[in-house]
Amino acid sequence: MQGTMKLGLLLTAGCAPALAWAQDAVPTNVQTGGTEATSTGADEGTIGDIVVTAQKRAENVQDIPLAITAIQGDTLQQRQVTAVDQLTTIAPSVNFGTYGGAARIAIRGIGFDIPDPGSEGRVAYHLDGVYISRPAAQLGTFFDVDRVEVLRGPQGTLYGRNATGGSINVISRAPTDGLSGYLNLTIGNYGRVATEGAISGSLSDDVAARLAVMSNNRGGYGKNEYTGNDIDDANQRGARASVRIEPANDLTIDLSADSYRENDHAYGIHYFGQYSPDIPLRGAVLGGTTSSKLRNIRSDFDPTNRRELYGLAGTLTWDLGPATLKSISAYRHSEFRDVTDIDMTERPLSQFIFFERARQYSQELQLSGSFGNSNWLIGGYYFDEKILGSAQAARNLLVNGGADRLVNGFKVEGRLGTKATAVFGQLDLAVSDAFKVILGARYNHEKHSINDIFQLDFVRDYAPNAPLVPMPGFPRQDEVTDNAFTPKAGFELKLNDDALIYGTVSRAFKSGGYNLGVNVPAFSPEKIWAYEAGLKLTTADRRLRANIAGFYYDYSNLQLAKVVNNSVVTENAGAAILYGGEAELTFLPFNGLQLDGVLSVMHSEYRDYSSVDPGRPALGLQNLEGNSLVQAPDVTLTAGAQYSFAGLGGEIKLRGELNYRSKVYFTAFNVDSIAEPRNTKFNAFLTWTSDDGHVSATVFGRNLTDKITKTGGIVNSASFGTPLSGSISPPRTFGVTVGYNF
């Protein structure tokens, strides 16, 4: 009773901004994928396992016939993985970028490259089992994390829509029965001050609760050379409350609510140079200048980033004896507005304003069970999303030789809707104690709708809420229906308790849809056939673990986007292939030392695709067969070494990392000026943890050589001179994190 009263008082105090919080007990075993050697106990010097729910049931990650990397929260904390973009340093074949504040996650060369309101990615992102559709809403969920599961390869059967690249599952920490807590404080360069923590415990015999909060404040990584103000700074706040109710031994109800806000000058686009040498930068012609450094911008106004996300979710798990019924119900809301300069100079020629407000409802039902060593699952899914989006380039008439004033210019605005339903199932049939046959299928039905308007207004002065004057063909109303069947078949063979061989063939699809303000028929869904085989091996002494996978993709009807004039236009390419191999290795040569690495080697090419480059139209229709896919580096490598030893009344861990990535193209035309060359980065970490596990401190440094790399880019409109613009990675960052756990 006393503990319950304490928790109630702490939860009440937790509504204040400077709340102190809590953490589950630090796991004592190691996990695969970001594994970490145990240094105490009977299992000292061995590699442990982690239980995941990637196949919608709890199982050892080493027993799953999938290419999957799982990382627990304490490992993420020690390696300063504080956002989804930093997963590139842990999981093979993962590439990440941003443009305009939207997450551009790619796995094995398949990701998000359509910078348009209402667009969707190819990697299904989930928070506690709930699919988050909006790429811009995926950046604010990464705190108080229990573990992250990165599923590589198409997941069309159990995950369905928009999982052609794979799935990222973020699982937050659940409420605990006992009173516990943690508080982490990070101080870093660029004036960074960040806090994160949670408090958890019982409210009654049947009810436990958890409250987690985070804040991150940082000065800018760059400057607006014209105004002198910071850009690419951070002002972020987040909170999540969860309650677990167990009214009976066979029934569990999990309820959660989360929110996140940003209000800063992040995501302004940077100038990379000119795409077409024969088309001068319009701002420079009119007397403007570009930034002197890649990390800076030069603009007549500072970029702004405003976003607000929140969600509600309820999960019911009912043990029926021979089967388990699970229901996942969720509502999510996101709204963001970014304003940036696209003429790349301080001349007052343009403001690009991107706005998106979305709400989604989803409902998933699962019925699962087992017989003998066999497992089965059947389910149904419903998804309903409505989006209000707009993109506007308010212009100065100097562009057209007119008066020096800003006019409404180009603007598209509209409402997009998606309703999706699916039924699915999978059977892992045990033919013998060692051999299983995998059979699965999903049937997907989707309806997409649009009601939009497009204007070119060079007469009226710019006004944020000016009524739109439609061009011919608008307003437009249209809808399209898509159906997709995504089966899966395969096998798994256990050579022994520590060795698994598997092979699968599966199909997945990405939804079709519309581009706002482009009066053409809807673009079609893209589909992929994936063939994969792998080996998961742990030696008997549990000092070496090797997970190896090879894959081949037959990819058809690809959706590829480009900027034509001021509009984003998506077209369907004919076909592409991708194939390659991956390896995740962890080796403990002796107690205290851990060597680990993840390697991906891949080849990608378009097989049937011709297109006109809007930035170089004089070249006409180009045959792009043989070109590499966007966001598809041939080689990625992370190699790490970690040494642990006793000292200063606790355990000290010293870790160093190398991250290598080969060239990445940002458009299908494979032009070097809109690509990121191969690069290598280095990270280092020094962590001390007290013997009782209550106190910890980590000194960290990321990107130690201060390498500047581009993370995404596009060719902008010819009316501004086809400037190349995009986002860049953080500079060298360092600091210290101090934590207290109770």
From TrEMBL:
Keyword hit for Transmembrane helix: no
PROSITE patterns: TONB_DEPENDENT_REC_2, TONB_DEPENDENT_REC_3
Membrane topology term: Multi-pass membrane protein
CDD domains, sorted: ligand_gated_channel
Family under the similarity heading: Belongs to the TonB-dependent receptor family.
Organism: Sphingomonas quercus
Protein name from the UniProt record: TonB-dependent receptor
Residue ranges of domain TonB-dependent receptor plug in the record: 61-166
Subcellular location: Cell outer membrane
Record-linked InterPro entries: Beta-barrel_TonB, Plug_dom, TonB-dep_rcpt-like, TonB_rcpt_CS
Residue span(s) of domain TonB-dependent receptor-like beta-barrel: 294-704
Keyword set, alphabetical order: Cell outer membrane, Ion transport, Membrane, Receptor, Signal, TonB box, Transmembrane, Transmembrane beta strand, Transport
Organismal lineage: Bacteria, Pseudomonadati, Pseudomonadota, Alphaproteobacteria, Sphingomonadales
Motif residue range(s): TonB C-terminal box: 725-742
